[in-house]
């Protein structure tokens, strides 16, 4: 019914997600805070799963060794 959307008046910036007039897209400069918020939004699933991944690692043999070694290094003043 509307055909391709190439004639849209506004498009989202691929870097910061801001709605920018199509004719101003090339001159658009991303706001640093908006860019950071958008990047964090894009990574929300990874950020949300970080705690679970750390717990899984620390429950593994390698993770348990790292915990033991870190505690040993912390308590050994000669290290």
Termini Cα gap: 72 Å
SSE succession: EEHHH
Average pLDDT for all residues: 90
- Specify the number of helices: 3
Widest sheet, order of strands: 1-2
Rg over CA atoms, rounded to whole Å, is: 23 Å
Q: Mind describing the biggest β-sheet?
A: 2 strands, antiparallel
Helical amount: 40-55%
Principal-axis shape equals elongated
The count of DSSP E runs of length 2 or more, i.e. the number of strands, is: 2
Q: Strand pairing plus helix content: what structural class?
A: mainly alpha
How would you sum up this structure, described in words?
The structure is a single chain. The protein is mainly alpha-helical and 79 residues long. The chain folds into 2 domains: 8-42, no CATH class; 49-79. Helices cover 53% and strands 8% of the residues. The protein has 3 helices and 2 strands. It has helices at residues 32-42, 44-59, 61-75, and strands at 10-12, 19-21. Strands 1-2 form a two-stranded antiparallel ribbon. A hairpin with a 6-residue loop joins strand 1 and strand 2. 0% of the residues are buried. The mean pLDDT is 90.
In short:
The protein is mostly helical and 79 residues long. It has three helices and two strands, in the order ββααα.
């Amino acid at each position: 019914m509307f055909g391709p959307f190439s004639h849209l008046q506004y498009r989202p910036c691929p870097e910061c997600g801001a709605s920018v007039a199509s004719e101003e897209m090339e001159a658009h400069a991303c706001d640093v805070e908006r860019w950071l918020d958008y990047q964090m939004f894009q990574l929300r699933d990874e950020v949300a799963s970080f705690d679970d991944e750390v717990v899984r690692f620390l429950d593994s043999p390698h993770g348990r060794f790292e915990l033991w070694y870190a505690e040993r290094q912390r308590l050994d003043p000669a290290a």
